[in-house]
Amino acid sequence: MKITSYKGGDLDKSFKSYARRQIKLIHLKFSKIGGEVVKASIGFYYFSGFAKINGQFVYFSISDVRHSNMTNKLLIRKCRDENDYSGERNCYLQNYQWEDFKGLNDLLQLTAK
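Now predict its structure.
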């Protein structure tokens, strides 16, 4: 998994550390359902990335943590490849509770071959 990071000196190091931990957690969660994070990026107080599940790419992201009440919600959607930032329908995983979230079942159906 490749993680790129914002290069400016004005981003708090604790956020970079937090984002790396969260991306690794997401990678672990995807690996439990046969997927993997293939590319991730840490931006200015947000992060995003692409994963592949059963040959299908998905995009994920967390909004700017300074201005959003969405920090516990992971946006996730089906996409064409690891450069498709628009993708399809948005789903949200609240507190990363994958097993209890209807959207994950929808997502898995979208990615099933």
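The chain has a mean pLDDT of 82.
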